[in-house]
Amino acid sequence: MVKVLICDSVDAQAVDAMRAAGVEVDVRDTITLDELGQVIGEYDGIVVRSRTKVRAPLLQNPGNLKLIIRGGVGVDSIDVEVAESKGIKVINTPNASSNAVAELALGMMFSLARSLAWADATMKAGKWEKKKLEGVELAGKTLGIIGYGRIGRMLAEKARALGMTVVAYDPYIDSPDLISLDELLSVADYVSLHIPHTPETHNLLGAVQFAKMKPGARLINAARGGTVDEDALYAALTTGHLAGAALDVFTEEPPQSEALHKLIALPQVIATPHIGAATVEAQERIGGEIVKLVQEYLAA
Ligand code: NAD
Known about the structure:
The chain is α/β, with parallel strands linked by helices. It has helices at about 10-20, 35-40, 80-85, 100-115, 115-125, 150-160, 180-185, 205-210, 230-240, 260-265, 280-300; strands at about 5, 25, 45-50, 65-70, 90, 140-145, 165-170, 190-195, 215-220, 240-245, 270.
């Protein structure tokens, strides 16, 4: 019987569906890397989310392991080359969470435009700060999307439906919506990142790029920590050059450093704990794709 270990939380229906398909499934969604190292070779496949990082040392003695499924988009948490060199296939579920992330980015834009989080926090603190809460509208504004892949394009469609103008920067694809990064930074009222974190995109937005952004522009990062220089962002926000930022991803998750806590504490910052894919629907889709991948593996 094929044995699969689920290392991070996966939709319960998906677990049932795998068992119904004749797979022996162990769910250990709090397993530590040390514990995983001891048992990994007993399984034909493991399913991981962002919590479990599958680095080279874990793959030293892979035993029966032939398949790593990453429920979600990036495989940056897995040493893919090492796995593949040992004959282990690495597959992810890239489409399942796109709409959830695009909707979060959109929600963040609305929240930034009307300072919703701050308005709510002050109300909960017993205040009535109506006079300080004059916002702006999204209709008629320009959204600059950096990274025009699955999520970037979905966000573009939604933003156009709101009457926004959309421009995008992506050196690896072809689209009439594309302009240069400098041009995008100079025209966008909202800049939203939808890129992977790679050596090339590390601190893609730093002090130089923030200076090129329109005064009063707002930034959304629901892509990956490390694509934005957080210290430079803090400076751009506290000088008032940027009006706000919404962040779902950070260089440290959860944030530890004092600098990051200071950034998050700014009233013009909205911070969420990496919840881009955390919707019921996305989790069901991720679960469904995982089942399909395991079934394909069984059929091969
Ligand atoms: P995708 O691969 O479909 O699109 C990414 C795009 O970025 C591609 O078109 C690529 O050409 C472009 N790109 C690469 N390097 C670039 C660069 N230097 N400059 C500009 N563009 C560049 O990926 P996707 O599914 O749209 O996901 C986008 C990002 O969202 C990923 O980093 C993913 O990890 C992240 N994500 C976050 C969450 C969350 O919970 N917040 C959930 C899912 C995905």
